[in-house]
Amino acid sequence: VQLVESGGGSVQAGGSLRLSCEYSGYTRCMGWFRQAPGKTREGVAAITATSGRTDVADSVKGRFTISKDNAKNTLYLQMNSLKPEDTAMYYCAGTSRGGTWYRSQTYNYWGQGTQVTVS
User: Fold this and answer.
1) Which of 8, 50, 83, 117 is the most exposed place for a label (fewest CB within 10 A)?
2) pLDDT by residue (tens digit) across 55-93?
């Protein structure tokens, strides 16, 4: 499974960005993580392959939306009302095994990351 993120950039507080992750192969669950300098990697949102169930971290609930287009093999993260504390490297992840969605150890496939900077 290969994952390639795009869509990061710099934006002012209150603005929006949409991250995309093109994937190849099947995974049971896909998610977005982020990591700011000096901080641990944080689970942001996840979506399951079968039911399409989504989970979103409390820190971004109501502002971020995860979705998936199976026809395009693309995972999205729509980010609205961005705050400076959302600044981080954002990673797309996939897992072929079960586990807790917000734990990075659950995932065995990772993209290279895309930087989001909010000022």
Assistant:
1) 50
2) 999 999 999 999 999 999 999 999 999 999 999 999 999
Spatial CA neighbour of 55 closest among 82, 32, 27, 24: 32
- Tokens representing 86 are 């959302």
> What are the φ and ψ backbone dihedral angles of 24, each rounded to 5 degrees?
-125, 140
Q: Band of the pLDDT at 98, cuts 50, 70, 90?
A: confident
To which residue do tokens 């981080």 refer? 88
Alpha-carbon distance of 1 to 16, in angstroms, equals 29
Choose among 27, 15, 3: nearest CA to 90: 3
